[in-house]
């Protein structure tokens, strides 16, 4: 049976008091406004705390660090994406052959990163913990499950990592800005890669 992990979406809150919930929402709204005004690169937790009218300790306790706040900012979009590939209509959701679902997922992930490119770029600068934590673990389990269905006996975990490796904000920006690739070019390349991974080899 396919693995149905709980969604480790970034910034997912635990049940909290009303005042704590209001502070959390205020901090997120202020951070989003500051990013719109100055860019994600300039986001400072001290500045967010001042603009939100809370102590900087409150921000650190609630989000941990700058990466934690960035993950909270992408949370709602991430929830919708995960719901789509786990429970939505095919080919992204259940009901299509595994190979088609893998391709649809990779295409959807490109679009997902494009939605909040600046945030993903900033998050990726947080190192491997930021890059490979949270949603990445869900993506990897999802792809590994589909790969195991398409190619029984293959090293599904490794192949899942291999499929996810080229779908990151830094590489997507480089491919567009430096190589002149379009989104369609990138998706076509990912289709070829997914086909190679899911094809049965003698």
From TrEMBL:
The ranges of region (Disordered) come to 1-21
Q: Which UniProt keywords apply?
A: DNA-binding
The record ties this protein, via PANTHER family, to:
HTH-TYPE TRANSCRIPTIONAL REGULATOR RUTR (PTHR30055), POSSIBLE TRANSCRIPTIONAL REGULATORY PROTEIN (PROBABLY TETR-FAMILY) (PTHR30055:SF209)
One MF term in the entry's GO annotations? DNA-binding transcription factor activity
Where does the record place the HTH tetR-type domain?
21-81
Specify the protein name.
Transcriptional regulator, TetR family
SUPFAM superfamilies xref list: Homeodomain-like
Q: Which residues bind DNA?
A: 44-63
> Superkingdom, according to UniProt?
Bacteria
Mind telling me which PROSITE patterns this protein's record contains? HTH_TETR_2
């Amino acid at each position: 049976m396919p693995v149905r992990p709980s969604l480790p979406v970034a910034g997912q809150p635990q049940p909290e008091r009303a005042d704590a919930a209001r502070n959390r929402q205020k901090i997120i709204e202020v951070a989003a406004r500051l990013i719109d005004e100055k860019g994600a690169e300039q986001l400072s937790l001290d500045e967010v705390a001042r603009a939100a009218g809370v102590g900087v300790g409150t921000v650190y306790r609630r989000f941990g660090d700058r990466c934690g706040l960035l993950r909270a900012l992408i949370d709602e979009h991430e929830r919708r994406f995960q719901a789509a590939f786990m429970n939505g209509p095919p080919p992204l959701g259940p009901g299509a052959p595994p190979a088609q679902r893998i391709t649809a997922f990779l295409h959807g992930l490109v679009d997902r990163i494009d939605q909040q490119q600046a945030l993903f770029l900033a998050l990726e600068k947080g190192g491997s913990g930021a890059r490979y934590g949270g949603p990445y673990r869900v993506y990897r389990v999802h792809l590994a499950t589909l790969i195991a269905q398409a190619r029984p006996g293959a090293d599904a975990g490794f192949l899942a990592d291999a499929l996810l490796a080229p779908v990151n904000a830094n590489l997507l920006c480089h491919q567009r800005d430096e190589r002149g690739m379009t989104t369609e070019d990138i998706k076509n390349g990912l289709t070829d890669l997914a086909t190679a991974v899911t094809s049965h080899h003698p």
